[in-house]
Every structure is written in structure tokens, then in C-alpha cells.
Specification:
The chain is α+β, with helices and mostly antiparallel strands. The protein has a domain of 103 residues: Mannose-Binding Protein A, subunit A (Mannose-Binding Protein A, Chain A). It contains 6 helices and 8 strands; from the N terminus they run αααββαβαβββββα. Strands 1, 2, 3, 4, 5, 6, 7 and 8 form an 8-stranded mixed sheet that branches. Strand 4 and strand 5 form a beta hairpin. The radius of gyration is 43 Å and the shape is rod-shaped. Bound molecules: 2-acetamido-2-deoxy-beta-D-glucopyranose (4 copies). It is found in: Membrane.
Amino acid sequence: MQDEDGYMTLNFKTRKPGLPTVEPASSSLWRVMALVLLFLCIALVVGLVALGVMFATQQNCIQIVNKSLPGTPQQLTKLSSQDLRKQSKEKDDFRHKNITCAPNWRLYGDRCYGFFRQNLTWEESKQYCINRSATLLKIDSQSILGYIKSRTSLIRWVGLSRQNSNKVWKWEDGSVVSKNMFELSENARENMNCAYFHNGKIHPTFCQNKHYLMCERKAAMAKAGKQL
Ligand SMILES: *[C@@H]1O[C@H](CO)[C@@H](O)[C@H](O)[C@H]1NC(C)=O
Ligand SMILES: *[C@@H]1O[C@H](CO)[C@@H](O)[C@H](O)[C@H]1NC(C)=O
Ligand SMILES: *[C@@H]1O[C@H](CO)[C@@H](O)[C@H](O)[C@H]1NC(C)=O
Ligand SMILES: *[C@@H]1O[C@H](CO)[C@@H](O)[C@H](O)[C@H]1NC(C)=O
């Protein structure tokens, strides 16, 4: 039908010049039109195939980005590296929150507590903690006091000492013991310059005595998270 119409139109147009001997001219024109149509069809098919390929490629790219595979196509390298950077940042943030302690150390707050059954003098205990990148315990809040009390019922050295009977009690970090938490001096006799913890109380005693001990150190990940 279309062919017929096309033919008629062409025939009509070609008649304009005037002569009845239009047959060769119109057939050559038809051939040209057919070729043009053919080219249009081929172009259309090629275009469709190209579109299909592009679509398929994009699908693959999306999948690759989703899976964050290392081998990404060039046009998506930027996006994918941003993606990976974002992911690793999220991982870091997550890790900062996820604080853990080494085996045998207990996590409480942002700190790790180690309870050791080593019978040592106060100085040896101090060194024992230092050898483990830790310090003797500082009990400076009711919550830590409660925690330690619940964890151990044994006598254990803490990081509290004084230079002599005339000096104030100080924690290992140099801070003075708060008066309302413990009453030390009234029990402390001459030359009792080191303190141990027992059943929720701090007791002064001779530094050369041997007791078990406990150490504390910052939970590794909490440290990084706090400093950032
Ligand atoms: C990519 O992941 C998102 C969410 O994780 C999902 O909705 C989408 O369908 C995924 N796309 C492909 C192509 O897998
Ligand atoms: C912390 O990380 C460990 C493994 O790295 C995991 O088993 C644990 O569930 C994580 N805890 C939290 C609270 O995310
Ligand atoms: C610690 O050692 C001292 C002296 O060697 C000893 O008298 C004491 O019973 C020991 N304590 C413990 C808990 O083993
Ligand atoms: C601490 O480490 C030093 C050196 O490794 C060692 O000589 C010492 O005995 C250790 N002290 C304690 C109490 O573990």
C-alpha cells in the first residue's frame, strides 16, 4: 500500500516536467528512495543495538558499584573510588565505636581492666602494669568503685601512694584523692604509704607487702575515637 502510494506520488511529481516518457526517471528515483529507506532502516537498527549495548553496560556498572569490585570501567572509576572511600570512612567510624579489650582484660566504659593474681610488692605491681602498657588502677568515681567491687573480692593494689606520712595521697597520674570517696589518713599509720582495694574500700599498708593487683588502660579503639 505504502509502496503504491509512494509510487503514485513520485509518478505524479515526475509528471510535472511534462512528458509521458517518465518511466526510467521515476524508477531510478524509486531506487534512490529505496536505498535511502534502507539506510534509514540500517541506521535505526544500529541505533537500537547501540542503545541496547549502552543499557547493558550501565546495568553492569551499577552492579559493579554495588559490589564495589576493584575492576570498574573507566567512566565509573571516580564514582567507585568515592564509594570505596565513603565505605572505608564508615568502617573507621564503626570501629571507633566498637571498642574491645585484649583477652583477659575486661571492658568497662572506655577502659580495659586487668585483674592479676601475682603476689607482688606495690612497686613491682606498678612495673607489672607498665610492662603491659597500663597503670595501676585509679578509682575516681563511684561507678568505677562499684564496678571493681563487683568484679573482685580479693585484696589488690591500686595506684594510690604517698611519699611519706606528711604528704598527701596521690594517684599515679599525680591527682589528689578526693576526700569524700575514701578516708585514708585516719587508718594510715607511719610508713603505710601504699594502698590496696578490698570490698569497696581503700586501705593504706606497707609498700613492701605483697598483694595481687589490677591494672587499667584505655580501650584501644576508644582512644583513637576520642582523639579524632
Ligand atoms: C544496588 O543496590 C541498591 C541498594 O543496595 C538496590 O536497590 C539496587 O537494586 C541495586 N542495583 C543493582 C543493579 O543491583
Ligand atoms: C565488634 O567487632 C566484633 C568483631 O570485630 C564483632 O564480633 C562485634 O559484634 C562488634 N560489636 C559491636 C557492638 O558492634
Ligand atoms: C604473698 O606473698 C607473701 C610473702 O611471700 C605471703 O605471705 C602471702 O601469703 C602471699 N599472698 C598470696 C595471696 O599468695
Ligand atoms: C617488666 O619488664 C622488665 C623487662 O622486660 C622485666 O625485667 C621485669 O621483670 C618486668 N617486671 C614485672 C613486674 O613484670
